[in-house]
Amino acid sequence: MKKAYLPLILLVLVIFEGLAINLLPKEIALSDYLIIAHWVLAFLVYIAVYYDLEDTYYSIVYAFMFGLLIDVVYAGVLGVYMFSYGIAIYAVHGLRKILHRNFYVLLLLCVTAITLADGLIYLMYTVIGVTDMIWSDYLLRRLLPTILANLLFLLLLFPLLKKRIVRWSEEQLDHGN
Amino acid sequence: MRFFRNKRLFIFLIGFILLVVLVGYTFKDRIKVTFAEEFINDAIGWVQYVIHTPVNFTTDVFTNIKDFRNTYEENQVLKEQLSQYRSLIYEVQEVNKENEELRDVLDLMESDSIRSHEAIQAIVIARSPERWLEQVTINKGKNHGVKANMLVMTADGMIGKVQSANEHTARVKLLTGFDQFNRISAMVSRDKGRNIFGMIEGFDEETNSLLFRIIEESEQDIAEDDLVVSSGMGGVFPAGVPIGTVKEVTSDQYGLTQIALVEPSSDMYDINHVIVLDRAVDQVDESSEADDGEEEDNEE
């Protein structure tokens, strides 16, 4: 039963992403800046850093599953979020093996994941013609505000979730000691 | 070790092929979605509907507090307008009656206007976090009569069209996400002389306005602040739905035709209650075959 906690939280985040734009002040929402909620990705970074062991791949499996769910519910074009999230979390999972587990590494990995995932989304949507934004515009108007907004979300989650995820990891996974 | 390397490469390639197939299969504006997608969308939509209510309540409270500040001035203006409206209502009633009588005399069918369409009330329950797609989800679907390519409007004017309908929810593409594949035939009506006809060709992000290409000009040129309404000529959208007001008139890149920049009349950010316009029942029988053909190529 306890194993269902993580997917449930992810599912709730997927649903709340649809209401995310209501949380922004109207001036920002209507401005040229595009802020995208990557809450699911931010939470997946937590799972990758604090829940997964070196030889378990829950975070990557969840990344593909919930990426696909976002595609189905919010995009209609299947596969874009699924593979962007999957590859970003795969990179995070690989990087955390060579880095220490602490707060600053978590921030660094989150920035990496969002940059990678959102960059891939931009690349794929450009290829299929959904957007024709030039890359300098993309960097300033979408990527930068998105990273900042999602880092804020990550920081808000930290006191709530960090200890819990570590505890769940110790209870549910075989830590080999 | 070598085997694992190859395995990783193998998975990567399979994944890449899967990605290309998935995206390639689904990236066109699909009217029909698969059963699994429909089921997931309906299930998530139900939860979204439940959550949406309290969240909206709290955000509404904040905007209400802001609104209180200018209540007094607004009240003054509205009172003035109200007295003007009273005489207008009387006039409209007279005109309506006259119109009906004249139509009876001429034995005319009701034209393909907004009046001959059934309105389905709906609530926006979610907005896609992917801002490039400009999609919202509404809480009415096939069960309530919503079908793909129906026009969606608010009280202010058109906001978009139904992209695909599930059983209980539907996905709406907003005007701000329209491109050359989603054209609307539109017009500017003129008291004297011919009306100006043209096509809304998509949304321009740089100027934040819709591009209205004028096809048939009138003796009276298009001017700023003209109201652009849908003309109903494409046979998909009904006539007479306000789209926006003209902001600026320019010529196209070859200097052959005029293009007007049109500012959408409804707010694309603050949408809550929307109306889906359904074709009236008696009209469906006549034009259902023509409709099928048009819905296929998904264009006005």
UniProtKB/TrEMBL annotation, chain A:
Main location: membrane
Alphabetical list of NCBIfam families matching this protein: shape_MreD (TIGR03426)
Membrane-related topology note: Multi-pass membrane protein
One annotated Gene Ontology cellular component of this protein: plasma membrane
Membership in a protein family: Belongs to the MreD family.
Protein name as annotated: Rod shape-determining protein MreD
Provenance organism: Oceanobacillus indicireducens
Single GO BP term: regulation of cell shape
Subcellular location: Cell membrane
Swiss-Prot/TrEMBL keywords: Cell membrane, Cell shape, Membrane, Transmembrane, Transmembrane helix
Segments traversing the membrane: 6-24, 33-51, 57-83, 103-123, 143-161
One Pfam family linked to the record: MreD
InterPro entries noted in UniProt: Cell_shape_determining_MreD (IPR007227)
UniProtKB/TrEMBL annotation, chain B:
CC per GO annotation: plasma membrane
Domain Rod shape-determining protein MreC beta-barrel core residues, every copy: 124-277
GO BP terms: regulation of cell shape
Keyword presence, Ribosomal protein: no
UniProt keywords, alphabetically: Cell shape, Coiled coil
Keyword Coiled coil found: yes
Coiled-coil ranges from the UniProt annotation: 85-112
Family per similarity comment: Belongs to the MreC family.
Described function: Involved in formation and maintenance of cell shape.
Name used for this protein in its record: Cell shape-determining protein MreC
Phylogenetic lineage: Bacteria, Bacillati, Bacillota, Bacilli, Bacillales
Gene this protein is translated from: mreC
